[in-house]
Known about the structure:
This protein is 75% helix and 7% strand. With 308 residues, the protein is an alpha+beta fold.
Amino acid sequence: MLWLNIRRVVRTGLLQVTRNGFVSFAAAAVMAVALSVIAGVAVFGGMLRVALDDIKDKVDVNVYLSTLATDDDVSALEEALTSLPEVASVTLLSADERLARFKENNAHDQSTLDVLEELDSNPLGAALMVKAKEPSQYAGVATFIQQNYPPGAVGSIVTDVNYYRNREAIDNLTQVIGAADQLGFGIAIALILVAILVTLNTLRLAIFTSRDEISIMKLVGADSAYIGGPFLVAGAAYGLVAAAATLLLLLPVAYWLNPVTERFFRVTSSFDYLISHLGGTALLLIGSGVLVGAVSSLIAVHRYVRGK
């Protein structure tokens, strides 16, 4: 009996979708517009996150060591930094590698290269490149070094830490990542609420045209679930159709914007990102569409089912 009632509710809901053609089209169109904006924000936010992660991966703190530091000293410091909970990795750059990088970076400065050639030994010591798990954690790493291996102090194997020169850039990156997360979440919530409100008013028209049927069903003893079920199915169907239409529209738009977004983000583009996250984007659209349609239907039908 339960299965039979479910089949009737689903069939009635789908009939309402096909019977009220204009209302169904209007509801699906409104939801498609809302879902398009939500999808656009999600894709743009995802590309921004990829770009920020790429920048974050390139940010590190370099700990420059004295030429007098022994291998044991370097290993002890490397182990101490690696044990910090905020540190993701520590990479050792030998004195020879550091010198080679210095020459490469100053290839245009022949006078500096000439001075290096005249020296009998390498004037640079080794360096440790420390990468934190989050940009905001570099301050803790720098504090640890300052307290335990004060740069430039007598007897310290650390001569310099470049965190203090890069602090502004690291702090700005931290603020951008935090602001992007908050903005994306806020916009998504606002758009979902707007979609529910707009879809709610559209669905009320469909329910209003069926008010006589609802009254008759209540008179013959139909319960609230049986009366409101078809409208719930109809709302979910609107959302499903809107999600499919949005996804079909999103693909050519993302392809059209691909050159622009590729120049802007550099590490990714709209079409490439969408294709690589097509499954997740489709689930987001379907889930949002069905949820918005179902919630809107429940709110809209409540008045008539309860007789208010």
